[in-house]
Every structure is written in structure tokens, then in C-alpha cells.
Design a protein that fits this description.
Blueprint (H helix, E strand, L loop, with lengths): L4 E4 L5 H12 L3 E6 L3 H13 L4 E5 L8 H14 L5 E6 L14 H22 L3 E10 L12 H21 L5 E7 L10 H4 L1 H9 L9 H11 L11 E4 L6
Parallel strand pairs: 1-2, 1-4, 2-3, 4-5, 5-6, 6-7
Helix pairs in contact: 1-2, 1-8, 4-5
């Protein structure tokens, strides 16, 4: 039986790195992408290989759809080198944050968010479909901000809301191939995302913890573990769903 192979975009740092490590710990080989920090990406590869799994890191700017055909061929070459032809799962995780009020958001900021968080995952997934095995899985990363609102994230949250709708359509249209599609919506997590505000701002950290049922801010391990769980065979019947991993924020 072939070892599962999972592609994680934005897998060199933050939540993506943790997702890749948890998935590898669960027994999957990993293809991860990075935008510019090849050293960080290779460190993740080395860590995964040290635990007995195969891993490869490929450069990808999810905001530049013109590069997707060449990227697909790079993935195909990695798979061939491993004696395989198909991916078993795709995690659309890569992203960036822009904090700006609705009134102050510029068209340039809006367009960047569209390209990275909506257009990119839409067309990258379509380009990778020939490499995703029948019966495979797709997990799109959303945000708790599609359910609750905090000032400054109108554009970002709107893109994530679109991804949640897209995921349901993908689940419906790809169901004939047995491909399951879900979204995972993290709450506030103590990583370097958004300049590390949740991690480094003690006042913000305390506020988030006070508004979370479990009484603390989320950690990267909380999300990596959730991704590994959702992509495990035991959860195959979960499909077309939005799963929030926030510890119970703003209930």
C-alpha cells in the first residue's frame, strides 16, 4: 500500500510547518511549498526526513497563477522520483494578512488578498486535479473571522468566506471522483502571522484568552493536530463542512 502523500502550501513556517510535521507524524510523505525562505523550508524537510518520512520543498507564489503549470510539473517530477503518480491530499494553507479598516482598504490591498486567498487556491487546485488521486482529500484553510468580526479584517475575511463557499461547490463537483473537500477555520493563534500580534502583544493575547471558552490563545500545535485529524481515514465521511478550531472563541 502506497504511503499517503500530502501537499501543503505555505509549509515552511507557522501553521503550515506544524501541519506538515503533524501529517508526517501520522505517516504521510510531504510536499511543501515556500515563497522565498528556502532555508526555512529545507529545515522542515530535514526534520520530517529525520523521522523517517519523505519530504520535498518547492517554491510557489500562490498569488501568481501564471506559474501554476510549471509548478504542477515540478510536483509531478517529485512524485516520479518517489515512484508515485498521485497526491492523496492537498492543503491550501499559504496566505498573508492585511489589517486595514473597510474604509481604508486600498484596491491594491484588496487585489493582493484576492490573488493569494481566492484566485490562487481556486486555480491551483484546478491545476493539481489531475495529480490528486480519486478518493483523495482537499482541505482549504479559512478563518474564525468568517463567523465573528473584529475591525480591520473586512477584506481578508471576505476572501475566506468565499473559500468556504467554494469548498462546498468543490465537494459537490468532485464527489464523483470520491474526493472530499472541507475547510478548517482557525481562531486566533500565537504565531508570526500578522506580525505576531496575538503572540507578542500581551494585552491582545489576554483579551483573546478571555473571549475563548478554553481560556487561552491557540497554539500552532492545535491547528496541526486538527489538520492531521481531518485528513485521517477515520474522518473520511466528513465532507463539505466548515470546521472551526478556535477553542470556542466568542461563543
Amino acid at each position: 500500500m502506497q504511503t499517503p502523500i500530502v501537499l501543503v502550501t505555505g509549509g515552511s513556517r507557522g501553521l503550515g510547518r506544524n501541519m506538515a510535521q503533524h501529517l508526517a507524524g501520522q505517516g504521510s510523505d510531504i510536499v511543501l511549498t515556500y515563497r522565498s525562505e528556502s532555508g526555512e523550508a529545507q529545515a522542515v524537510v530535514a526534520a520530517i526526513e529525520a523521522h523517517g518520512r519523505r519530504a520535498a520543498a518547492l517554491p510557489l507564489d500562490v498569488g501568481d497563477s501564471a506559474t501554476f503549470p510549471a509548478f504542477v510539473e515540478s510536483v509531478r517530477a517529485v512524485l516520479a522520483g518517489w515512484g508515485c503518480e498521485r497526491l492523496d491530499a492537498l492543503v491550501n494553507n499559504a496566505g498573508m494578512g492585511i489589517h486595514a479598516s473597510f474604509a481604508d482598504t486600498t484596491e491594491a490591498q484588496f487585489d493582493q488578498l484576492v490573488n493569494v486567498h481566492l484566485k490562487g487556491p481556486f486555480f491551483l487546485t484546478a491545476a493539481l486535479l489531475p495529480l490528486i488521486a480519486d478518493g483523495g482529500r482537499i482541505l482549504n484553510v479559512s478563518s474564525g473571522l468568517t463567523r465573528f468580526t473584529l475591525p480591520g479584517y473586512a477584506a481578508y475575511a471576505a476572501m475566506k468566506g468565499a473559500i468556504e463557499v467554494l469548498s462546498r461547490y468543490q465537494a459537490k463537483e468532485l464527489g464523483a471522483r470520491g474526493i472530499g473537500v472541507n475547510t478548517l477555520a482557525p481562531g486566533a493563534i500565537a504565531t508570526d502571522f500578522g506580525g505576531g500580534a496575538v503572540r507578542d502583544d500581551a494585552q491582545l493575547n489576554a483579551f483573546v484568552a478571555s473571549q475563548t471558552a478554553l481560556g487561552r490563545v491557540g497554539e500552532a500545535d492545535d491547528i496541526g493536530a486538527a489538520v492531521a485529524s481531518l485528513l485521517s481515514p477515520a474522518n473520511r465521511w466528513i465532507n463539505g463542512q466548515r470546521v472551526e478550531a478556535s477553542g470556542g472563541m466568542f461563543l
